[in-house]
TrEMBL record:
Organism ancestry: Bacteria, Bacillati, Bacillota, Bacilli, Bacillales
Superkingdom as given in the UniProt entry: Bacteria
Protein name: YugN-like family protein
UniProt xrefs under Pfam families: YugN
Length: 142
């Protein structure tokens, strides 16, 4: 993980407005959100070793929960992140403890867990991240 300085850190926005501004730029809300925090991810690159490099923009709810209409969020410090995924079959495929057959299970859980959730990041991505941050600042602060 590499932290990236930004003028958007600490700024508050309506989550819906923020999402409407970031989605056209290529950001998506990361799947690991909770009711009090989440993140927007921008996939920069799929590396050559089953890794994905993201610019992640974390946020936390300041006046309610994320699933509530009109909730405001505060932006945290953006950072570069790399996830490395394993090849082949998942080592832990039986996530439903045998309650559901593997055929049905695969319909719900198609993705393997990352081998390394915080993999090393090539420094070549830093200029790209800085450029993306400038775009975010222009979009959100003007």
């Amino acid at each position: 993980m590499i932290a990236v300085q930004s003028k958007i850190e600490g700024k508050q926005f309506n989550l819906k407005v923020l999402e409407d501004k970031l989605k056209p730029l290529g950001y998506s809300i990361g799947g690991g959100w909770e009711y009090d925090h989440g993140c927007f991810d921008y996939k920069i690159d799929q590396g050559d070793q089953q890794g994905y490099t993201f610019l992640r923009v974390p946020f936390r709810a300041v006046d309610g929960e994320l699933d509530q209409r009109g909730v405001s969020v505060e932006i945290g410090q953006p950072y570069l992140l790399n996830h490395k995924y394993q090849e082949g079959l998942d080592d832990n495929p039986d996530v439903f403890n045998g309650l559901i057959s593997m055929n049905i299970n695969s319909s719900f859980n198609q993705f393997t867990e990352p081998v390394e959730k915080d993999g090393s990041i090539d420094s070549k991505y830093i200029p790209t991240a800085q450029s993306l941050i400038q775009e975010l600042e222009m979009t959100l602060l003007s």
